[in-house]
Amino acid sequence: MDHAQLARASFIVIPLILLALLIIPGRRAVRLPLAIIAGVVVAFGLGAMMATGNFTYMISFSTMAMIYAILSLGLNSQWGLSGHVNFGVAGFFAVGAFTSALVTTTMPTGALAAYSQQAFGLGQPFLVGVLAAGIVSAIVGYLVSIPVLRLRTDFLAIATLGIAEIIRLIFQNERWLANGPQPLRGIPQPLGCLFDDPACSWLPAPVAAFLQPLGPRDYIFFYFLLVAIILAVIYVALERISRSPWGRVQRAVRDEENSAAMSGKPVTFFRIQSFVVGSFIMGVGGAIYAHYVVSIDYSHFNPLFATFIVWVMLMLGGSGNNKGAILGPFVVWAVWTGTQSVVDLMAPVLSLISPDLPSRSAYFRWMLVAILLAAIVLYRPEGIIRERKRVSDFMKRTGKD
């Protein structure tokens, strides 16, 4: 393994250790050594694959899966924790993405100004954009939750789906806001100067020398690390609050709302809080997505790709369990991306049935997702990782995790 491969592997070891810490059960004293061993072994095993083009694809696949995992965690804090049927994930996803884009980009100038319009461009750093995306999404979630959470089940789902479509159509038709139907381009990537030549001027000399063999094409390894850290922070925060008294009240509201109200809990207030927390996380996911693809428009936030597939991911992983909310996106995204290869292999056979059939691979993908959803509902409604019955580390364990 040469210097460049070693540098790339270093960006992979930390995310793998973090993910292993999230997945491996047991006490921290046992999990940490196992996670470090697993992360190092897998990272250097993958490093041997760097000579092939498939490795870069795997990093890109994992990054998108982690972005979907953030959306799934946001949905889990609403549906899994409190029982809110939110079919408006795409709306908060879009608000977060466009907010971060507007906060971190600068106003177009010169000839570009004639083709690209936006309400404002503050040119702020990446973290400011991510926080702004979460806060604006939380504010929108609060404003939406006041009238919408008075509804229940089917009516709540329809209302949130309609609100998400309204948000998407606003970004589509109001060109002054975020360039309307045309893509909003030029979204900056955080710390992109790390892979320039020369690298960031503020870097210590040993770090700059370590990164020197890497070029702009290797930026995806750094972004993979960044997304993994953000995912881990969100997971730890949700685990803490789900085991807190606040989390126990949310489960009480979900399971038996009348009993919670009779116990003196302000049910409506807690329902709004849960909705706002989930909206904040979805907004953060949108911001991370925007800086990953660097160019966004309204079509990226179609309900099929930004709402219903997130529901399938959460249901497969296990609603009410944050580990399941992370596992589900990796499985479903593997199914979604893998079906394209299956269609390519089946193209000669499909052409015999109909010449147009190979070009309709999107329908084949959704058919597999629909079959997967039906199988979940019929055979594993609790998901791969069922919800933990023990909600506090201070309570005696009464069953299996």
Provide structural commentary.
There is one protein chain. This protein has 401 residues and is mostly helical. The protein has two domains: 1-52, no CATH class; 53-379, ABC transporter involved in vitamin B12 uptake, BtuC (Orthogonal Bundle), CATH 1.10.3470. Helix content is 69%, strand content 0%. It has 15 helices and no strands. The protein has helices at residues 3-23, 28-47, 54-82, 89-104, 126-148, 153-173, 175-178, 205-211, 219-243, 245-255, 257-262, 267-293, 303-317, 322-353, 361-379. It is globular and about 65 Å long.
Topology, pairings included?
Layout: H1 3-23, H2 28-47, H3 54-82, H4 89-104, H5 126-148, H6 153-173, H7 175-178, H8 205-211, H9 219-243, H10 245-255, H11 257-262, H12 267-293, H13 303-317, H14 322-353, H15 361-379
Using the 3D structure, state the CATH architecture of the largest domain.
Orthogonal Bundle
**Terminal Cα span:** 40 Å
Arithmetic mean pLDDT? 82
CATH class category label of the largest domain = Mainly Alpha
Radius of gyration: 22 Å
The total domain count is 2
CATH-defined topology of the largest domain: ABC transporter involved in vitamin B12 uptake, BtuC
Low-confidence stretches: 397-401
**Total number of beta strands:** 0
SSE-based structural type: mainly alpha
The SSE string, one letter per element, is HHHHHHHHHHHHHHH
SS summary, helix count: 15
Overall, the morphology is globular
The fraction of residues in strands falls at: under 5%
- Largest sheet data: none
Q: Percent helix among the residues?
A: 55-70%
